[in-house]
Amino acid sequence: GRDAIHAHEQELTAYAMERLEEVPGVKIFGPSAEKKGGVVAFEFEGAHPHDVAQVLDTQGIAVRAGHHCAMPLHDKFGIPATTRASFYLYNTLAEVDALVEGLYRVKELFG
To answer: Fewest CB within a 10 Å sphere: which of 19, 58, 85, 100?
Structure first.
């Protein structure tokens, strides 16, 4: 049911935010996990979001890069775009781990 889907989505989002904070150079945007849906927008120091998305794509990890219909907010923060990972009922904790591993590959490529 919807309550179980919401709980799973929140678990994935909280776990993703926790894991992403481990990656040097990653800055997460937005409120805490309990105040958001199943999305985490972030920037990666030294790599453009489109490059981050491309590297992750080569590893079978799908994310979005861009303004996400929030261009004024990106302008306010002075950033060209963000990378956004989304989670729903069909995602797993292992996929969050794969995302984090993929970001370490980005770090290898872009320092």
So the answer is: 58
From CA 26, how far away is CA 49, in angstroms rounded? 11
d(CA 26, CA 11): 20
Tens-digit pLDDT profile for residues 18-43 = 999 999 999 999 999 989 889 999 99
When pLDDT is cut at 50, 70 and 90, the band that residue 71 belongs to is confident
* Cβ neighbour number for residue 91 with a 10 Å cutoff: 18
> Which residue's structure tokens are 């590959």?
105
Which one of the listed residues 1, 4, 58, 69 is annotated catalytic?
69
* 65 in Cβ contact with 81 (< 8 Å): yes
